[in-house]
Design a protein that fits this description.
It is an enzyme of class 2 (transferase). The protein is of the alpha/beta class and 274 residues long. It folds into two domains: 30 residues, no CATH class; 200 residues, Rossmann fold (3-Layer(aba) Sandwich), CATH 3.40.50.150. It is globular, with a radius of gyration of 19 Å.
């Protein structure tokens, strides 16, 4: 309130309800927009080696894969997903949706202009062919940018899944380090809507800091070396005993070691697509 220049709580709440900019400022104070390209590479390896092959088996080789980055922040996550799908040969058989509650974050994401800090992970080298240097920042090529559709969405509201929201029938959902901001009742409601947003056989990836979804939605937990992924089982598929909460601690991926990255060398511009 003090930062916004307000002293009266009622007036401040009214301002939040009517002023998207004030609401975004509050979100920036309360949330941590920490992200970078191919963050937690184990999640992307899981998609490459397990989720995508299984989806190809279930849907057939011509299926258009639908992916949703829920809580996309400044865009590094959905752009990483788009690059992974391009690497795996999906090309024009992919839809990547990205949503966030912060309009400022969505505007940043659509600009697709990043500092070297967003490229600090080893996996970020995979972005190199799609970057060009512009005013000391790394700008993502339109070849990748045009494959991601950004939308405003408040996950806590029951406006999704629906055709109007663009969120339904997803093959893969990334909802990482978002649920930690919700109360338990809201987590339960969001978990159920995430389940309903998945197509049969679809996969959900949550963050290492997020609470378990066991018992909150009929999602099948998939135990991996880095933690738990979730799946909406196809009809008739047997459920495993792992549907109960695990009785042992799940090892989270080691956090990236903070460092100041050296400037990357300038990259040649990509050819202009016809």
């Amino acid at each position: 309130m003090a930062r916004a220049g307000e002293e009266d709580l009622g007036l401040y709440l009214g301002r939040l309800a009517s002023d998207p900019g004030a609401f975004d400022d509050l979100l920036n104070e309360l949330t941590i927009g920490e992200t970078y390209f191919f963050r937690t590479h184990e999640h992307f390896d899981f998609l490459r080696h397990q989720a995508l092959p299984e989806l190809r088996r279930l849907r057939g080789p011509e299926h258009t894969v639908r992916v949703w980055s829920a809580g996309c922040a400044s865009g590094e996550e959905p752009y990483s997903l788009a690059v992974l799908l391009m690497e795996e040969g999906y090309g024009h058989r992919m839809e990547v949706h990205a949503t966030d509650i912060s309009r400022a974050a969505l505007a940043h994401a659509q600009q697709a202009s990043y500092s070297a800090w967003s490229l600090r992970s080893t996996g970020a080298e995979r972005m190199r062919p799609f970057l060009r240097m512009e005013d000391k920042r790394y700008v993502l090529a339109s070849e990748v940018r045009h494959r991601v559709r950004f939308h405003y969405l408040n996950l806590a509201l029951d406006t999704w899944p629906s055709p109007e929201s663009g969120i339904s029938g997803m093959d893969i959902i990334f909802c990482r380090n978002v649920l930690i901001y919700f109360t338990r009742p809201t987590i339960a409601a969001v978990a159920r809507r995430l389940y309903e947003s998945l197509a049969d056989g679809g996969f959900l990836i949550t963050g290492p800091s997020d609470p378990t979804l066991a018992g909150l939605a009929p999602l099948e937990p998939l135990l991996t070396g880095w933690g738990v992924a979730w799946q909406r089982l196809p009809p008739g598929a047997p459920r495993s005993a792992a549907s109960a909460p695990p009785s042992f601690p799940i090892r989270a991926p080691a956090p990236a070691t903070p460092f100041t990255p050296p400037p990357l060398p300038p990259l040649p511009p990509l050819p202009v697509a016809p």
